[in-house]
Each structure stands twice: as C-alpha cells, then as structure tokens.
Amino acid sequence: MSNSTNLTSIRSPRVVFIDVLRAFAILMMLQGHFVDTMLAPEYRDPNNVIYSVWFFMRGLTAPIFFFSTGLVFVYLLLKDGRPLGQNVRVKKGLRRGFFLIGLGYLLKFTFPALLLGKVYPSFFVVDVLHCIGIAILLLVGSYAVQQKLRIPIWVLLTSLAFFVFFINPEAERADWSGLPTLLANYFTMARGSVFTPVPWVGYTMFGGLLGFILHKRPSLAFTHWMPLVVAILGALLTLYSHAMLTALIDLTTGGTYRTLLYGNYLFWRLGHVFIVVSIFMWVLQFFRYIPVLITKIGSETLTIYSVHYVILYGTWLGIGLSQLMYRSLNPWQSFIGAVLFVSFFIFLIYKIEIVRAWLDKNLQTPLYNRWRFVRVKLARAYFKWVNTKQPRVRFSFIKYFF
User: Fold this and answer.
1) In 316-364, which residue ranges form alpha helices assigned H by DSSP?
2) Angular region, 68: left φ>0, alpha ψ -120 to 50, beta rest
3) Residue 318 — left, alpha, or beta (φ > 0 → left; ψ -120 to 50 → alpha)?
4) Is the pLDDT of residue 93 over 90?
5) CB of 250 within 8 A of CB of 234?
6) What are phi and psi of 44, to 5 degrees?
7) Cβ distance 195 to 126 under 8 Å?
8) Treating both helix axes as pointing N-terminal to C-terminal, what angle do 292-299 and 16-38 enclose, rounded to 10 degrees?
9) Please, are residues 37 and 327 in contact by the beta-carbon 8 Å criterion?
10) Type and span of the H or E element at 7
11) Sequence-distant (≥ 6) Cβ neighbours of residue 93 within 8 angstroms
C-alpha cells in the first residue's frame, strides 16, 4: 500500500492488473445486463454503429470473467507452494467451487413461489456461477493430478482447455433428453441454460495457463515485451483461427473441426481476451498506484454479481427491475439507467464494510444466536428421546449437526 490508504501499489504482492481486469469485467457485465434487459426491441439494430459496438463489447464480458478466474486462482494456488494436503488454496478452492454451485441455485429461488409449493423451471437452469464453480474444481483436480503424477500443470491446463473447446460441437449435437433436467442443463442450453461448462471452462483453463506463467516469473507482468507477446497471440487467434481450423479439416476427416469453423467464436473470442489482457497489463505499468476502490471492486465480484442478480431479475422476491421495465426503454433512458445502475454498485463497494457491519449487527448475529438457541433445544429433545424411548440407540454423528 502507498502512504495513502486510498491507493494500491502497482507492484504489490498480488499482481494488481488481475483485480483491475476483474473490475472492468464486472462493470461491463452490470451495464451489459442492464441494457440488454431494458432496451426496447425496436432499437436493437445491428446496422447501428453504437449498438454494434456495445453488442461486441458485451460479448467480451463472459470470456474475460472466466479467463480472469483461472488466472487469479492458479496464480494464488501455485504461490502457496505447499503440498496438496497442506495447500490452503486447495481447501479454499474446493469450498469455493461447491459454494458457487450452491449459490447459483440459491439465487434462482423465488420465495413467494416456494410458499405456494412451486419451483419454477428456471431454478434448474445453469448459469455463470455453476460453471465457474466447476471450473475451480477442475483447476484443483488438475493441481492434484500434477502433485500425484508429476505431470506439469501447464500441460494439464493446456490439454484440458483445447479438449473442452474441441468437444463443444459434439456436446451441442448430442442428445441429452434422457438425463434429468437438473443434469441435462449442464450439457445443453436447449432447456434454458445461459452457460454450460463445455465450452466456457476452457477460458478458465487458458487463464490458469497465464496464471502459471506469471507465478513462475511474476516480473513478466511489469515488462513491455510480455504484453506484446500476449497481444500478438491474441491478434493471431483473432485473424487466423479460421485458417487454423481450415487446416485441421484438411488434415483430418474434419467433422468436429468443420463445426468449430462455421461457429468459430471460441478461439476468436479468446483472441480478443488476450488483446484486452495485454492492454491492461501494459497500460497499468504507467501508473505507480491504483485507487483502492478499483481493486476492491475487482475483489468483490461475487458480491456485486449476487446483489445485481436479485435486484435486476427479482428472483428472491419475485419482483425486480426486469419485471417493471423489461425491454421498454429507449437508448438514452437505457444509457442513463445503466450509469445509475453501475454507480450504485460502485458506491455499494465503497461502503461495503459499513454495510457488512450493519448486516452482522442486525441480521447475522441475531440469526446466529437464535440458531444456537434452537440447536440447544433440539439437542436436548433428541437426547431425552434417546435416553427414555430408545436407550440402546446411539447416533454419535448427530453431534456434528448440533
């Protein structure tokens, strides 16, 4: 930290450009989701330059988000340096992965519907949190394989990334109708899923590969040639991934690669991600300090995503901004609304510690105390029943619940 508590040194132990990149991605997501939800259909003209630029930039958000997740997780995972069983990041990663999957479902609950005994089909839809959770679990699994089999982790990440991209056409063509909806939604978007692990976790694996490189040589993030190499790689993917897939078709029977070629957005977007990453990596070198608020936004992406999901889509209470103004605004109204929407979340993160202290005092602590009281009552009632009605029955595992 600098002498001012409002600034973060650009050369702090955690590579700062990662948090700045994540801040950019989450703010882009906020405005993208707001405008896409509110802009009226008659203004969605692909021939309009402003709309086309917005639509192109909106398509960058998800790949950057997945990529930066892999980048920061692998960088911190390898930085710990301890064996598999002692690595704190492994334990945190496992908890985080399953937590994100659970949170993905929790955010889709509509409590008024639950009171009526209804669960909407949208509850089973797979979204970005589910995919990021699975991606983190795959990264932990790759690290475990590397530790046990001594296969270089960069080989595992690269292989997994290309494998996920290349099997995407087969996954899209496969018939998943025989699976329960809960499982099928992880493999197909036909039932409403916005994202599926294949192919999106591929971006996380590629991000993990860059995280591995920066772990080996952190100083590369502060050079001029590293951003140049990443930018050139991005430009090559953007301009020549079509030719690369065409060559693969010529060398093989080509069925899968032909499908990739006709819908070549995966490698094309990966090229854009590399270019954006290189820009952030290079430009930030000219700043000695970065405002703490920016890096704070980058480190609070989960909070922002969760709150925005409830406010915008109204999942928990059944009413949100989308229910009030869905696709009814003109461009200027959408622009002003997006600015206000993004500003609200910037202010929220600016005051996040105050908000958390208030929630802890007024909600979390009272709820926890009530739970402790109920837990004691349940435990006493249970053991009284065991001792009086079933004296020979002992379930030692019950103590873990009380």
Assistant:
1) 321-325, 331-350, 352-359
2) alpha
3) left
4) yes
5) no
6) -90, 70
7) yes
8) 70
9) yes
10) strand 7-9
11) 73, 77, 136, 137, 139, 140
Task: Please give the full DSSP string across 42-85, using - where no structure is assigned.
Answer: GG--TTSHHHHHHHHHHHHHHHHHHHHHHHHHHHHHHHH---TT
Task: Report H helices in 189-254.
Answer: 197-216, 225-251
For residues 191 and 125, the answer to whether their CB atoms sit within 8 Å is yes
Would you give the distance in Å from CA 231 to the centre of its chain? 23
C-alpha to C-alpha distance for 162 and 253, rounded to whole angstroms: 18
Q: 242: burial class by Cβ within 10 Å (0-12, 13-18, 19+)? A: middle
Phi and psi of 271, rounded to 5°?
-60, -45
27-79 pLDDT, tens per residue?
A: 999 999 999 999 999 999 999 999 999 999 999 999 999 999 999 999 999 98
pLDDT at 259 over 80: no
In order, the DSSP letters of 257-290 are HHHHHHT--HHHHHHHHHHHHHHHHHHGGG-SEE
Are the CB atoms for 288 and 4 separated by under 8 Å?
no
Question: Can you tell me the distance from the alpha carbon of 98 to that of 196, in angstroms, rounded to the nearest whole number?
Answer: 16
Structure tokens at 247: 């060559």
Question: Residue 160 in contact with residue 229, Cβ under 8 Å?
Answer: no
Dihedral, CA of residue 73, residue 76, residue 81 and residue 84, to nearest 10: -30
